[in-house]
Amino acid sequence: MPVYFILEENDADWRMKIGRATNLRGRRGTLQTGNSRPLKVVGWIEAENEAETEKRLHAKYAARNIGRHGGSSAREWFHLQPADILADLQRAGIDGFVEKNANAFEVVGHDRDGVPEYLGVWDWSNLELDECCPFCGMNFQDASQMFHCLNCDELTDFEQPDFDNEEDYLAWKVDKERLKVGRTTKVRRGRSP
């Protein structure tokens, strides 16, 4: 069960909820009901002992708790910005996730030298390729001059091969899916890929 960070978007102040839920998207929807300000998932930590992780985070940010100033119903809400919790997500290693921007790494322009500029992975900070996986939103590990995500098991250099025809492209795509399924099957059997 993930320990989540949900941000209440407001120009006047930053408010973030730290809690636990089995269905993260469902929980955000439930919290959104009755709240006029948009709520966004910022990130989450997949923890073996989610109660202890949540308790530790609540204690760490206790001085910034909204309920501390008389609002007892707000005991899981804190005056925090996404940048405040980024270190917690990074410290969690392969169990720490940022909520991935839907259009991550889309080319949004070019600088004056013609170098492409990309849309970032996370809405609240510029995370580089070596900091965050654009497929699942987690930290990267560098492997063999390529990027390897330990969670979704993507191995990529972000380049697609150049194909002469559609048949070659479709064969490459099928082969890539077959390799991905093979890696997933090995992991399920308890073997490393």
From the N-terminal CA to the C-terminal CA, the straight-line distance is: 25 Å
Note the overall shape: elongated
Helix content: 25-40%
In total, the number of strands is 10
Output mean pLDDT: 76
Which sequence of SSEs, written as H and E, runs from N to C?
A: EEHEHEHEEEEEEH
Strand content: 15-25%
Low-confidence stretches: 183-193
Radius of gyration: 20 Å
Secondary-structure-derived class: alpha+beta
**Total number of helical segments?**
4
Largest β-sheet summary = 5 strands, antiparallel
Total domains, how many? Answer: 2
- Give the spatial strand order of the biggest sheet: 4-2-1-3-5
In short:
This protein is α+β, with helices and mostly antiparallel strands.
